[in-house]
């Protein structure tokens, strides 16, 4: 009886080792941090940022808000106080907004390609399988909040709340990508990356909106760039397939 029990336990352990080894291959990760936009405004980005606002945005003296500008300011928590004279210039993207009425007003901040004369909204392809987004945002203790929009491979747009900005000064806002937003397919090619669409800043009815400032710095992602290789891996690459079949 004891011998049978010992053999049974060994078989169970061997099965567990086999299962966990196989599972380990499936969950291999290679995490990297990628900066999508520095908001430095020095020509190092392929994107220009534009805005669109809800109906009660202010027009005053021939100027329609919101206004965008690159400002000589940055979060010292990220870049430090003591910067040498030869250090590269660091700036942030500033937004000056005004609305004529309180309420659930919104401002969209979205990218366009710098070399696009039509300035059409551009959805930024995101590298790997995104785990989270984060960005430095300066707030003036106003009861506003920021949302982030992404599009999945099926064309569905998902809204993620990046965070409230009812605080003073710079803070790093972060949001995880929930598992219900698919970034892979069962069939090949399995990789199905997301696209960043825009930010949306919301005001709340209890808060003043006659004149406010928000600043943005270093929009980045934590992403898993691991891709499993297999025999015939190149035949799952759409660009390579197109090249082969064109010949």
CATH topology: Jelly Rolls
Low-confidence stretches: 17-26
SSE series? HEEEEEHEEEEEEEEEH
In CATH, what is the class? Mainly Beta
Mean model confidence by pLDDT:
86
User: What is the makeup of the main sheet?
Assistant: 6 strands, antiparallel
Cα-to-Cα separation, first versus last residue:
68 Å
Tally of alpha and pi helices: 3
The total beta strand count reads 14
Q: Cα-atom Rg, whole angstroms?
A: 24 Å
Which geometry do the CA atoms define? globular
What is this structure's SSE topology?
Blueprint (H helix, E strand, L loop, with lengths): L1 H25 L4 E7 L9 E7 L5 E2 L2 E2 L2 E5 L4 H4 L12 E6 L8 E8 L10 E2 L3 E12 L3 E8 L5 E8 L3 E9 L18 E9 L8 E13 L13 H9 L1
Antiparallel strand pairs: 1-14, 2-7, 3-4, 5-6, 6-14, 7-13, 8-13, 9-12, 9-14, 10-11, 10-13
Describe it.
Helices cover 15% and strands 40% of the residues. The model is unreliable at 17-26 (pLDDT under 50). It has one domain (29-81, 88-246): Jelly Rolls, CATH 2.60.120. The strands form three sheets. Strands 1, 5, 6, 9, 12 and 14 form a six-stranded antiparallel beta sheet that branches. Strands 2, 7, 8, 10, 11 and 13 form a six-stranded antiparallel beta sheet that branches. It has a two-stranded antiparallel ribbon with strand order 3-4. It has helices at 2-26, 76-79, 238-246; strands spanning 31-37, 47-53, 59-60, 63-64, 67-71, 92-97, 106-113, 124-125, 129-140, 144-151, 157-164, 168-176, 195-203, 212-224. The longest helix has 25 residues, at 2-26. By secondary structure, the protein is of the alpha+beta class. The chain has three helices and 14 strands. Strand 3 and strand 4 form a beta hairpin.
């Amino acid at each position: 009886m004891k011998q049978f029990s010992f053999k049974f336990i060994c078989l169970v352990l061997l099965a567990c080792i086999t299962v966990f080894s196989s599972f380990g291959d499936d969950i291999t990760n290679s995490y990297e941090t990628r900066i999508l936009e520095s908001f430095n405004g020095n020509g190092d980005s392929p994107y220009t940022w534009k805005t669109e606002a809800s109906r009660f945005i202010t027009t005053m003296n021939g100027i329609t808000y919101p206004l965008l500008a690159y400002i000589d300011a940055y979060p010292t928590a990220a870049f430090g106080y003591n910067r040498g004279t030869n250090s590269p210039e660091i700036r942030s993207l500033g937004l000056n907004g005004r609305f004529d009425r309180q309420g659930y007003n919104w401002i969209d901040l979205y990218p366009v390609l710098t070399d696009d004369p039509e300035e059409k909204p551009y959805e930024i392809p995101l590298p790997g399988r995104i785990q989270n987004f984060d960005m430095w945002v300066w707030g003036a203790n106003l009861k506003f909040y920021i949302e982030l929009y992404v599009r999945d491979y099926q064309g569905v747009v998902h809204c993620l709340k990046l965070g409230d900005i009812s605080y003073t000064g710079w803070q790093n806002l972060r949001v995880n990508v929930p598992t219900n937003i698919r970034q892979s397919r069962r069939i090949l090619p399995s990789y199905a990356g997301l696209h960043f669409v825009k930010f949306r800043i919301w005001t709340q009815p209890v808060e003043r909106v006659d004149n406010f400032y928000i600043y943005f710095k270093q929009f980045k992602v934590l992403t898993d760039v691991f891709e499993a290789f297999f025999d015939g891996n190149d035949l799952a690459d759409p660009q390579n397939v197109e090249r082969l079949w064109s010949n």
